[in-house]
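One example given next:
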Amino acid sequence: MAKCAICEKAAHFGNNVSHSHRRSNKMWKSNVKSVKVKTANGAAKKMYVCTSCLRSGKVERA
């Protein structure tokens, strides 16, 4: 499972609860993309980054 390299956001687990209150397993996946990112020395590196980190400007695309 992919995890954000910046904020380490990953999948969350819990229960799906029906109207009759029966429970089954559920997984919420974070919106993680494979992106080429500029590193500190100016080189490009491929990383998994969530879309909230991309939108907030925590990383810069190469």
